Amino acid sequence: MAIPRAAQTQRRTRIQEEKEELILEAALEVFSQRGFHGSTIDQIAEVAGMSKPNLLYYFRTKDTMHRALIDRVLENWLEPLQAFDAEGDPEEEIRSYIRRKLEMARDFPRESRLFANEILQGAPHIEGVLEGPLKSLVDEKAGVIRAWIAAGKVRDCDPYHMIFSIWSTTQHYADFDVQVKAVLGIGHDGVDRFEAAARFLETLFVSGLILGDKNA
């Protein structure tokens, strides 16, 4: 995990913590718009309203700022999948997962674009995370889905592609939000678009996957 330079001192002051947050907020704005390679420390310092030397006291490199943000994104992004409960009702678990992913697309669009840019660049900063903790978590939850299939609660399907499908359909509303709003048009481009998306995706996945009286 990336550690800010100031955090390595014995006593971090409230001002230091506030400065770090200010810098990371500025870095998130710049990285999400320009990508890692298109961003510079000068741009981040300008958005943060700080001098470059002052910024470099807290974060020595652009890479350190980027990794700190990626670490946060991964922690938040994995939380909904971690909450996928093997003991829960499959329909309710799938509905809940879809809604939580859409809430993240609604509330954290810059973080989503930051992550998408990292993946499009070949994940140079997080390849180990993708092949390690992320893969382990997805393997675990794929096992949960297989158990539901074996119990006759969910249709036979590839659990990995089920998870990928939920990722792609929900994150679309963050990464392609400009397109979504443009196509929906005036009057349909407010935050209610996320509720409409949630209802559609719940119907799509529940009707396609859940076995039982409702989908017999």
Folded structure, characterized:
The model has no long low-confidence stretch (mean pLDDT 89). The chain has 216 residues and is mainly α. It folds into two domains: 5-60, Arc Repressor Mutant, subunit A; 74-215, Tetracycline Repressor, domain 2. The chain contains ten helices and no strands.
SSE topology sketch:
Elements: H1 14-34, H2 41-48, H3 52-58, H4 62-82, H5 90-107, H6 109-120, H7 127-150, H8 159-175, H9 177-184, H10 192-209
Strand content bin: under 5%
Supply the number of helical segments. Answer: 10
- Level-2 CATH architecture of the largest domain: Orthogonal Bundle
CATH superfamily of the largest domain: Tetracycline Repressor, domain 2
Order of helices and strands: HHHHHHHHHH
The CATH topology of the largest domain comes to Tetracycline Repressor, domain 2
Give the termini distance in whole angstroms: 48 Å
Radius of gyration over alpha carbons?
A: 20 Å
Query: Sheet with the most strands?
Result: none
The percent range for helix content is: over 70%
Q: What is the count of structural domains?
A: 2
Record field, number of beta strands: 0
CATH class of the largest domain: Mainly Alpha
